[in-house]
């Protein structure tokens, strides 16, 4: 597969311009009815994302029960667990796709009962999906350019007329998208329709679309599912490089224990919607409950099925 | 399912513009020199109006992914609004009446687009039927819209712009051509802008679009408004330039389906596809009737023709959906690619 033929070189070089930090700081944080300034002293001072007592159920199925979780700035946190444990549900709650029955999500200093999905990108959160969620009818480049949608200020009239603002936005978004494509070794497929790429490359385009928004928090739902070992390693390098160059906080769901242990700073283990372990990779690996519930039973799931 | 591509992402710029310029030259210079008045009256005028309606529906359905069966309603709103603005506002230039009619259609489109915020696909399509029936009912019921004319059929005003009157078949053809060319160009700009990208994003994956910060509700409503604006003006062309009368009957559900077929046969999410589709829909019945009377003589009367048309068209649509879901435009791309390779091969020999 052509995805594997690239060298790993250049990962350390900054793919983003120096004004990245400026953008991150300058993110527009409009207040909403659904959010209140956080007064919860119990949450970690250093954390950028907290879940407090989150419970989520579908009919009779309890997907998450009383989940407390806090993610530190610049941390790579992995969430593991058997199929149906509630991993994707956590990311869906954080991104506002699901509304929890109880509990709160604390994001950029505010408590939410339901995170406003529409404002997610402005809050500095980007995500990928377990099942591919690319815009199949757009080129790879345009998919990534679309990742800048939250920055668009020009009106459609201005865009039709080719106003200075609209053109500047377009040029800026294209430049950034091209750089991210280069960073992820995707430049050669920039013109292809996203839906026509092999699975592994599509996963990587999704990462590109998330990264181009220069998120403070990156949520990755099984970004390496269905990839070969080489592709997985490459992907892990990309994630690490994004953290190292941008200071992005990463929450990652992954079934491949080898990848998880190598990549993450901390691992959270879920089983039947409960958090059964939370610690460094070494601690988690030695935890008897984890071994019983997960590691011993289903060491790997490569087919990437599920929601 | 194959992905729905937007217009020609791969072709290079100069070639594309050369084709467009050549077509415009033919349309503006070649056709009027050669064409008979039958060509203008029976083929080119309905072709232009339906093409524009197809462009409008394609923005909504092809690009933004919102299925609509109310196209003819928005055309009707445009036609009647233009008629009434022209009739009731003294000294309003015709062009202003037409633009205002576009806005009226956009406003109605916006209202009937509201269900799209909750409904998708089939259910949305059914709810747009409400537009179709409501508008036709209102236009028939309230004779004020038809200036209380007894028959409900009214003459369209003369097509005069800044003192110049577009008269006769060729004049009306030029009028329609100007309007269609201008709006097609603007539509082309729109679908290639950030907003056009947002349309496709909402169509292909609404959740992902929302997550990356696309204002999904606003985008859907904008698609309804812009699309209805264009279809409204297509309705004006249909009534003012082609039929020369304004009547609700011509804007029925059949017309809405016809425009949907134009978009499907021509190719979803393709501006030029609307022109391919409209050409086929307009020319095909004429060819069929010629062919029928040539082969069968007197047996092939208008009843038989009508039935044959429906059957053949139905079969054609099914064939397209199965064999070429991306429409005539995809066929065209493939043929062009073939020719290109053949040329290159013959040149290199
Ligand atoms: N939209 C939904 N509707 C109904 N039930 C759901 C929905 N989403 C998740 N669930 C249920 O919630 C539970 C947790 O699902 P979730 O997708 O979070 O698991 P997961 O850990 O991501 O599993 P996998 O490894 O298979 O992706 C499962 O029992 C699932 O069936
Ligand atoms: Mg999952």
Automatic annotation (TrEMBL), chain A:
The Swiss-Prot or TrEMBL record annotates one GO molecular function as:
ATP hydrolysis activity
List keywords of the entry alphabetically.
Answer: ATP-binding, Nucleotide-binding, Transport
Tell me a GO cellular component: plasma membrane
Q: What Pfam families has UniProt attached to this entry?
A: ABC_tran (PF00005), BCA_ABC_TP_C (PF12399)
Domain (ABC transporter) ranges: 49-297
> Domain of life here?
Bacteria
Checking PANTHER family in the record gives: ABC TRANSPORTER ATP-BINDING PROTEIN (PTHR45772:SF1), CONSERVED COMPONENT OF ABC TRANSPORTER FOR NATURAL AMINO ACIDS-RELATED (PTHR45772)
* Protein name as catalogued: Branched-chain amino acid transport system ATP-binding protein
**Species of the source:** Rhizobium giardinii
Automatic annotation (TrEMBL), chain B:
Under the GO molecular function aspect, what terms does this record hold? branched-chain amino acid transmembrane transporter activity
- What's the main place this protein lives? membrane
An example of a Pfam family matching this protein is BPD_transp_2
UniProt keyword annotations, A-Z: Cell membrane, Membrane, Transmembrane, Transmembrane helix
Transmembrane stretches in the record are 12-31, 37-60, 67-85, 91-114, 121-139, 173-191, 221-243, 255-271, 278-296, 311-332
Give GO cellular component annotations, separated by semicolons.
Answer: plasma membrane
Q: What is this entry's stated membrane topology?
A: Multi-pass membrane protein
Instruction: State where the protein is found.
Output: Cell membrane
List, alphabetically, the InterPro entries matched: ABC_transp_permease, LivM-like
Presence of the UniProt keyword Cell membrane in the record? yes
Known PANTHER family for this protein?
Answer: ABC TRANSPORTER PERMEASE PROTEIN, HIGH-AFFINITY BRANCHED-CHAIN AMINO ACID TRANSPORT SYSTEM PERMEASE
Official protein name in the record: Branched-chain amino acid transport system permease protein
């Amino acid at each position: 597969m052509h995805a594997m033929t690239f060298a790993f070189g250049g990962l350390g070089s900054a793919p983003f311009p120096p004004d990245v930090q400026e953008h991150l700081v300058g993110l527009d944080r409009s207040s909403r009815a659904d959010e209140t300034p956080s007064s919860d002293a119990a949450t970690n001072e250093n954390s950028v994302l907290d879940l407090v007592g989150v419970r989520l159920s579908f009919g009779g199925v309890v997907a998450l029960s009383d989940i407390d979780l806090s993610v530190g700035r610049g941390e790579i946190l992995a969430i593991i667990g058997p199929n149906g444990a509630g991993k994707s549900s956590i990311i869906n709650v954080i991104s506002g796709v699901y509304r929890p029955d109880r509990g709160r999500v604390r994001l950029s200093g505010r408590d939410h009962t339901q995170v406003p999905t529409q404002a997610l990108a402005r809050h500095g959160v980007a995500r990928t999906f377990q099942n591919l969620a690319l815009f199949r009818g757009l080129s790879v480049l345009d998919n990534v350019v679309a990742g800048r949608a939250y920055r668009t200020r020009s009106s459609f009239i201005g865009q039709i007329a080719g106003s200075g603002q609209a053109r500047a936005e377009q040029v800026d978004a294209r430049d950034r998208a091209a750089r991210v494509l280069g960073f992820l070794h995707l430049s050669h497929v920039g013109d292809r329709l996203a839906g026509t790429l092999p699975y592994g490359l599509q996963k990587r385009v999704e990462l590109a679309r998330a990264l181009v928004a220069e998120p403070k928090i990156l949520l990755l739902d099984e970004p390496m599912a269905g990839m070969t070992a080489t592709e997985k390693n490459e992907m892990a390098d990309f994630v690490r490089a994004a953290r190292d160059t941008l200071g992005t906080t990463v929450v990652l769901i992954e079934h491949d224990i080898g990848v998880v242990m190598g990549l993450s700073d901390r691992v959270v283990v879920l089983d039947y919607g409960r958090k059964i372990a939370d610690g460094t990779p070494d601690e988690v690996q030695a935890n008897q409950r984890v071994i019983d519930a997960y590691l011993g039973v289903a060491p790997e799931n490569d087919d990437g099925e599920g929601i | 399912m194959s992905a729905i591509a937007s217009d020609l992402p791969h072709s290079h710029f100069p070639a594309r513009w050369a084709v467009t310029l050549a077509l415009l030259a033919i349309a503006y210079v070649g056709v009027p020199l050669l064409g008979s008045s039958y060509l203008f009256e029976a083929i080119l005028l309905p072709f232009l109006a339906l093409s524009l309606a197809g462009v409008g529906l394609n923005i909504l359905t092809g690009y933004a992914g919102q299925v609509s069966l109310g196209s003819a309603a928005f055309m009707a709103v445009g036609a009647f609004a233009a008629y009434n603005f022209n009739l009731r506002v003294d000294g309003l230039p015709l062009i202003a009446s037409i633009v205002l009619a576009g806005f009226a259609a956009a406003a109605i489109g916006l209202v009937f687009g509201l269900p799209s915020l909750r409904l998708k696909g089939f259910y949305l399509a059914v709810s747009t039927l409400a537009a179709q029936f409501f508008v036709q009912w209102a236009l028939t019921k309230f004779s004020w819209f038809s200036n209380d004319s007894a028959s409900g059929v009214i003459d369209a005003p003369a097509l005069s712009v800044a003192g110049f009157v577009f008269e006769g078949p060729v004049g009306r053809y030029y009028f329609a051509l100007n309007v269609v060319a201008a709006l097609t160009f603007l539509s082309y700009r729109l679908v290639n802008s950030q907003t056009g990208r947002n349309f496709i994003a909402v169509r292909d994956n609404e959740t992902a679009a929302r997550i990356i910060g696309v204002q999904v509700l606003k985008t859907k409503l904008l698609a309804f408004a812009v699309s209805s604006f264009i279809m409204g003006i297509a309705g004006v062309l249909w009534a003012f330039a082609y039929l020369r009368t304004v009547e609700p009957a011509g804007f029925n559900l059949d017309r809405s389906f016809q425009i949907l077929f134009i978009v499907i046969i021509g190719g979803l999410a393709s501006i030029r596809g609307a022109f391919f589709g409209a050409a086929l829909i307009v020319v095909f019945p004429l060819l069929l009737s010629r062919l029928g009377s040539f082969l069968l003589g007197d047996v092939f009367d208008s009843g038989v023709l009508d039935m044959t048309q429906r059957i053949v068209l139905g079969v054609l649509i099914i064939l397209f959906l199965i064999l070429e879901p991306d429409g005539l435009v995809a066929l065209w791309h493939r043929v062009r690619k073939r020719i290109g390779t053949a040329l290159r091969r013959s040149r290199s020999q």
